[in-house]
Write a structure and sequence with these properties.
With 441 residues, the protein is an alpha/beta fold. Helices cover 39% and strands 22% of the residues. The protein contains 14 helices and 19 strands. α1 crosses α4. The protein is globular. It starts with a strand and ends with a helix.
Length: 441
């Protein structure tokens, strides 16, 4: 698809993909899609992260929605999972979140949610994209509208905090890096409501994702050590992901967090089908560690949407990505960095153990992931040299390792992951493929 990637539409603001006219046409395309699905009227909820281009993008999308006869509700600056929850709260037919997630301020994007608070399937996105392209080809001007303002933050906070016992985090010290994004007020407030002593940084006093948040964990690492906190949490710009730091200032690998949550759910009788869903990106050591405690590990393709769909298919209620997307279908059909952070903090508090201690049973294989900037995402099977290098790697690694080569669904990058029980072999395989990629692409 030209516009939609693994997580909505994303790109440089003001470019050929992300601009107000595209947002306006997308608003019209969404209503047209709903009409084709038998929905003739209703409300569509819109929200945004705090980047400077967000308000004009939201109003342009709202203009397209209202011009087609639907009502646009404006939730303002909210975390993405808050917007998803609000779709259900207000009985909206769809949700539109204006965000570029962890991307820099110069980018923006759009994520869509169904009336069931879930991401759209690829087939549905393709339907909307076809409608969008038809409207873009017609050209013309766009109309901006200030939709009816709605407030859902307090309802959202009550909902997420309601999953935990009152004052369950009393006596615990938490440091939060909000990436100057959508969670700048919500995450500190939620932790405070549950009794934690909260210190926070990058809560709206700077540029979104600029040397802050989940993409720059050193910031929260230093903050945890300076504040002598029990736990550190770093969100991405729109708040659907979390990266965790132990009291020692050590970043805990995302795959270890997934294993930790799976075991906690298992120990408390809340792991559907004794299974957990991750992705092809997750470390093989996680799969082996989970198997050792009787948990079956299922792999989906990259993207929290794919994790969610496979969770439903396998009857699992927990899943996630090593990047920090964590899903519990008992809570929402999409990931929420705040819910994940509260779950991790509560588990540490309940067990009276540090996050490092709670995750040390998970033994990950040596692995390394590198990225290459590309101008065009040429199909990899069109390059015999690349296929030969991958076949060579498979033969060298056997069952004691693997390689994953894929294009990013949100950025113009090619990502290469190599892992093996033997670190020396892993590095050799990675270097071989990387050299071929550089020469070929």
């Amino acid at each position: 698809m030209k516009f939609f990637g693994t997580d909505g539409i994303r790109g440089p603001y003001g470019g050929g993909v992300i601009n107000e006219f595209t947002a306006y046409c997308l608003g019209k395309a969404i209503v047209e899609f709903l009409a084709q699905s038998g929905v003739s009227e209703g409300k569509i909820l819109l929200g945004r992260d705090p980047r400077s281009s967000g308000e004009s993008m939201l109003k342009a999308c709202a203009g397209g929605i209202e011009e087609m006869g639907f009502s646009a509700l404006d939730a303002g600056v909210v975390p993405t999972p808050c917007l998803a929850y609000g779709v259900r709260l207000f009985g909206a037919k769809m949700g539109v979140m204006i965000t570029a997630s962890h991307n820099p301020e110069t980018d923006n994007g759009i994520k869509l949610f169904t009336h069931q608070c879930s991401k759209l399937s690829i087939d549905r996105e393709m339907q909307i994209e076809n409608l969008l392209q038809t409207r873009l080809q017609c050209g013309g001007s766009f109309k901006s509208v200030a939709g009816a303002s709605v407030d859902l933050i307090d309802d959202y906070l009550s909902y997420v905090c309601g999953f935990f016992p009152k004052h369950c985090l009393a006596g615990m010290s938490i440091s939060i890096d909000a990436a100057n994004g959508s969670t700048s007020s919500t995450s500190p407030e939620a932790f405070s409501r549950l009794g934690a002593a909260v210190t926070s940084v990058n809560t709206g006093d700077g540029i979104i994702n600029d040397q802050a948040g989940s993409e720059f964990p050193s910031c929260v690492q230093n903050f945890v050590q300076a504040k002598k906190a029990d736990l550190g949490v770093a969100h991405d710009g729109d708040g659907d992901r979390s990266v965790f730091v132990d009291a020692s200032g050590q970043t805990i690998d995302g795959d270890k967090i997934l294993g930790f949550l799976a075991k906690e759910a298992l120990d408390h009788g809340n792991l559907g089908q004794r299974g957990f869903v991750g992705t092809v990106q997750s470390n093989s050591g996680l799969e082996i560690s989970l198997k050792s405690i009787g948990v079956q590990f299922h792999r989906s393709q990259i993207g929290d949407r794919n994790v969610s769909f496979l969770m439903t298919e396998r009857g699992c209620n927990w899943g996630g990505e090593s990047s920090g997307h964590i899903l519990s279908h008992d809570y929402l059909a999409t990931g929420d960095g705040l819910f994940a952070a509260l779950t991790v903090a509560f588990a540490c508090q309940r067990n009276q153990r540090s996050l490092e201690e709670m995750t040390e049973w998970i033994r990950l294989w040596p692995s390394k992931c590198v990225s290459l900037q590309v101008e065009e995402k040429v199909p990899l099977d069109k390059h015999p040299q690349i296929q030969e290098a991958l076949a060579r790697a498979k033969s060298q690694l056997g069952p004691q390792g693997r390689v994953v080569l894929r294009y990013s669904g949100t950025e113009p990058k090619l990502r290469l992951l190599a892992e093996a029980e033997n670190e020396k072999l892993m590095n050799e395989v990675l270097a071989d493929i990387y050299e071929v990629l550089q020469k070929t692409l």
